[in-house]
Design a protein that fits this description.
seven-stranded mixed sheet; alpha/beta; Rossmann fold; 16 helices
């Protein structure tokens, strides 16, 4: 077992459940000292009796306070989820300045059964060249390869929703009194989001029937069905930091308009565009209306679907477009050409289409499958641990994550600035009128 002697680990906000409480226990079991810092009532609630210091100051006091706190407590490691949450960005800056190791936790890109844990933020230290990926894959194979997914099943939706509601409602009801400086990181107010989910559940049957009918009409329900060329656009969540901070636009609606307008202007006249919403989309954004308006004369060749399986869409697509969704990796693994619009860690020459989106509709570049295999092994070995944030696999995930935090890093910091998925927003083209 990796020893944590001498390591002092500060846990900021994690997922909206008790996973970080379990992670603190797993770190302590390995000899490290785990410190919990609650930034809102939900954090305090989900620590489930673990001693946590409450920070209740004003937002402008936080940068200086967290820098002083890291130094005073002798913190060696900082763990958090969401590098663009209001308190997390300044905390990461202070940690780097003070020589504190930063560990960013998130759902794994290679799901199910995996969590990601990366130094210094999502993709910050991962190689961004084909040669770098090949070297990392060789190291992974030499070390015995990745651990792979966990065996335990994740929690059902009811268990996940129960924790999420408890965390959010604690903040809605008590933040004003207990944590007056608290700022939500979510795009939507929790009550609005829950209303959207209720509406989505009420129309679930209709959405499935409509999606199945469209797949059949476009020949995507059978591998041998004749079909016109179909491109698939995979939407993400509007509130996801991968969109708001690492996408071509801070608002996914703008990106959708640009992609659909580009398809309408540049795609072959027989091509079709199928836009798939994210499974966790809250139904508060009128994606179909936005897409139809942006498509103009091509409106009959662009459709939006919800609650349809991803595999047949990828299998039947001549090309897949996404900002930086992990589903892009599924498309690459299936050998489909992929155009990444954001700063995806897997958007490197040899994997994704290198040219403008306008050319992708006519000549999508297929991936180098040997490089795809190296990418999957390197990413899994360097950035993933087995487990889940909730359900029976949560303890396994906490144990594996604690071991990885305390172990020597598998990635080395990049040389110079501009490495990793940071920098200016990549261009798509001019916004539609």
């Amino acid at each position: 077992m990796t020893t944590g002697a001498g390591r002092r680990v500060l846990l900021l906000q994690g997922p909206s459940n008790d996973f970080f409480a379990l992670l603190g226990d797993a770190l302590a079991a390995r000899g490290a000292q785990a410190f919990h810092l609650a930034l809102c009532p939900g954090d305090a609630l989900m620590r489930r009796g673990r001693r946590a210091r409450w920070w209740r100051g004003a937002p402008d006091e936080w940068p200086a306070w967290i820098a002083a706190h890291l130094a005073a407590e002798g913190i060696t490691d900082l763990v958090l989820l969401g590098d663009h949450r209001p308190r997390h960005g300044p905390a990461m800056i202070a940690a780097r300045a003070g020589g504190v190791r930063v560990h960013h936790a998130e759902l794994g890109l290679l799901r199910p059964g995996r969590l990601s844990l990366e130094p210094d933020g999502p993709g910050a230290w991962f190689p961004r060249s084909a040669d770098g990926i090949r070297r990392l894959a060789a190291r992974a194979r030499g070390a015995g390869g990745p651990d792979g997914p966990c065996a335990a099943a994740p929690a059902g939706f009811a268990a996940y929703a129960g924790m999420d509601v408890a965390w959010n409602m604690a903040n809605v009801l008590a933040a004003w009194a207990l944590f007056p400086g608290y700022e939500r990181h979510q795009l939507w107010h929790p009550l609005a989001e829950y209303a959207g989910w209720a509406w989505k559940a009420a129309r679930a049957g209709r959405d499935r029937r409509q999606g199945a009918a469209l797949l059949a009409a476009w020949g995507l329900d059978r591998a041998d069905a004749p079909r016109a060329p179909v491109f698939v656009l995979l939407l993400q969540l509007r509130g996801d930091a991968q969109i708001r901070a690492r996408g071509p636009d801070a608002d996914l609606r703008v990106t959708l308009r640009r992609v659909v307008a580009d398809f309408s202007a540049n795609a072959p006249p027989d091509a079709r565009l199928l836009i798939k919403t994210h499974p966790m989309d809250n139904a508060l954004t009128p994606w179909r209306r936005i897409a139809k308006r942006a498509a103009g004369a091509a409106a009959d060749r662009a459709e939006v679907v919800d609650r349809v399986p991803l595999a047949p869409l990828i299998a039947g697509a001549v090309g897949v477009v996404t900002v930086n969704s992990g589903a892009g990796l599924e498309a690459l693994a299936a050998g489909r050409p992929v155009k990444a619009l954001g700063r995806a860690v897997w958007d490197v020459p040899g994997l994704c289409h290198p040219g403008p989106l306008a050319g992708f509709w006519h000549d999508p570049a297929p991936p180098d499958m040997a490089l795809v295999a190296d990418m999957l092994i390197a990413l899994d070995w360097a950035c993933h641990v087995p487990g889940a944030f909730d359900g029976p696999a949560a303890r396994e995930g906490a144990s594996a994550m604690a071991a990885r935090i305390l172990a020597p890093p598998r990635l080395m910091p990049p040389r110079g600035a501009g490495c990793g998925p940071r920098g200016d927003r990549p261009p798509i083209g001019p916004p539609p009128p």
